[in-house]
């Protein structure tokens, strides 16, 4: 799929906004303070990513004369997951595991997109920023995966306030 630099930035900004909204929705659905705090942390991270991407887009727009077409293989996947995320956060009765599954997929696709975009970077600073964003998305995936695995393994316990006390009692950090 061929897109202009500007279109890539617009899609990336929109995806970061949707990811933030998904994490906020997840946080509102959980009874666990520990999980809620972690999800709100991820929401803030996505907002920071959006700001970085907007600054990069501004800078590139002022530097570039005519938009060029770049071939971004991941863009189709990225658009699909952004649309899925937009749909799921609008559902009034969405369940936690559905949001986690889509959020994990979104983090993987975002990582892949940022790595691919880094290969098109015009300079080392831009490449470093894009690679850093990719690394952050990979870290977000790891956090979500761990939470998701716990939800699947201990569904009843995990969704209760008791979970917070259990974690505090065993002094488990994640």
Write the layout of secondary structure elements.
Elements: E1 2-4, H1 5-29, H2 33-63, E2 69-71, H3 75-90, H4 96-118, H5 124-153, H6 155-158, H7 162-170
Antiparallel strand pairs: 1-2
Can you describe what's shown?
This protein has 174 residues and is mainly α. It has one domain: Ferritin, core subunit, four-helix bundle (Ferritin), CATH 1.20.1260. Helices cover 79% and strands 3% of the residues. It contains seven helices and two strands. The protein has helices at 5-29, 33-63, 75-90, 96-118, 124-153, 155-158, 162-170, and strands at residues 2-4, 69-71. The protein has a two-stranded antiparallel sheet. Helix 1 packs parallel to helix 3 (75-90) and helix 4 runs antiparallel to helix 5 (124-153). The radius of gyration is 18 Å and the shape is elongated.
């Amino acid at each position: 799929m061929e897109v202009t630099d500007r279109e890539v930035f617009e899609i990336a900004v929109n995806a970061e906004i949707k990811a933030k909204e998904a994490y906020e929705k997840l946080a509102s659905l959980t009874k666990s303070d520990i999980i809620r705090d972690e999800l709100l942390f991820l929401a803030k991270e996505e907002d920071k990513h959006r700001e970085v991407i907007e600054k990069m887009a501004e800078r590139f727009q002022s530097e570039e004369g005519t938009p060029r077409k770049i071939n971004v293989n991941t863009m189709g996947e990225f658009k699909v997951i952004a649309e899925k995320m937009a749909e799921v956060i609008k559902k009034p009765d969405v369940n936690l595991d559905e949001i986690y599954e889509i959020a994990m997929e979104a983090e993987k696709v975002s990582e892949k997109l940022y790595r691919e975009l880094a290969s098109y970077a015009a300079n080392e600073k831009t490449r470093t920023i894009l690679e850093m964003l990719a690394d952050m998305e990979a870290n977000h995936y790891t956090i979500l995966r761990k939470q998701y695995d716990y939800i699947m393994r201990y569904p009843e316990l995990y969704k209760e306030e008791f979970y917070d006390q259990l974690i505090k009692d065993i002094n488990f950090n994640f």
